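User: Could you go from structure to sequence for me? I need the amino acid at each position, not a summary. Structure tokens:
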């Protein structure tokens, strides 16, 4: 975090992924403590590998702003996590949402969404839709909206919307470098910024970036979106 005005500190949420077909259930519980913070307690049976019966369990407890359990809907995740960030962005504060977790833990599902159902749309399409809805309501200002799509992999940034490239491998995409100016503003050099005037155009860019990402076929450790709006009165 750096530069500019800060409206809020970092908020950390947990989402528990529903079990896959051949996955074994983990042991965990969700609770609230005295200060009504959410706790996620994970129990890791000890010595299972050794094969002897042992009632001792190891417990790990983590605190989060809120915990989304297995049955949590995409809509609820959007409402609690993304909508406040979008509202801050509309009020002039930069906002970042990112998902962190091992491969297969549900980052893409949460951030982008699932392909099967419309209701599985994730944070990005819902937020794009919300932002354009809000902008349409405001007839007293003129807004320009741009989209860029950056992938960070192994400490390098890659431009997923590079117009000159039909990406075959991630390494073939232009590398994006992160630079900080004396005022501590972050600049992403080499990152395309494409105008998207409405939800459809923005979604098309999202699909283009996703396609480049899938073609490049990598295991992604970090997926995110950054919202910056230019206000023109
Ligand atoms: N909350 C969820 N509900 C239903 N399916 C999910 C959920 N989270 C993840 N999945 C499914 O689990 C698989 C792995 O999730 P994915 O988002 O691709 O993980 P990651 O991006 O962290 O590697 C995908 O098939 C995805 O659709
Ligand atoms: Mg993923």
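Assistant: Here is the amino acid at each position, in order:
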């Amino acid at each position: 975090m750096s530069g500019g005005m800060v409206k809020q500190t970092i908020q950390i949420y947990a989402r528990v992924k529903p079990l896959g077909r051949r996955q074994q259930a983990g042991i965990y519980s969700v609770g609230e403590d005295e200060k009504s913070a959410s706790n996620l307690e994970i129990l890791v049976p000890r010595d299972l590998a050794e094969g002897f019966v042992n009632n001792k369990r190891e417990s790990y407890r983590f605190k989060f702003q809120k915990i989304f359990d297995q049955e949590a809907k995409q809509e609820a995740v959007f409402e609690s996590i993304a909508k406040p960030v979008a509202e801050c962005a509309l009020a002039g504060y930069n906002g970042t949402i990112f998902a962190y977790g091992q491969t297969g833990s549900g980052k893409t599902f949460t951030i982008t969404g699932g392909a099967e159902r419309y209701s599985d749309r994730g944070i990005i399409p819902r937020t794009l839709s919300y932002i354009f809805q809000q902008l349409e309501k405001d007839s007293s200002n003129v807004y320009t909206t741009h989209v860029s799509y950056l992938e960070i992999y192994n400490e390098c940034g890659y431009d997923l919307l590079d117009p000159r490239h039909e990406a075959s491998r991630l390494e073939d995409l232009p590398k994006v470098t992160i630079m900080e100016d004396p005022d501590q503003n972050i600049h992403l050099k080499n990152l395309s910024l494409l105008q998207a005037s409405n939800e459809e155009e923005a979604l098309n860019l999202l699909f283009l970036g996703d396609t480049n990402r899938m073609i490049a076929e990598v295991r992604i450790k970090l997926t995110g979106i950054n919202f910056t709006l230019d206000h023109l009165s």
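One structural detail worth keeping in mind: The pocket of adenosine-5'-diphosphate (ligand 1) is lined by residues 17-18, 101, 103-109, 114 (CB under 6 Å).
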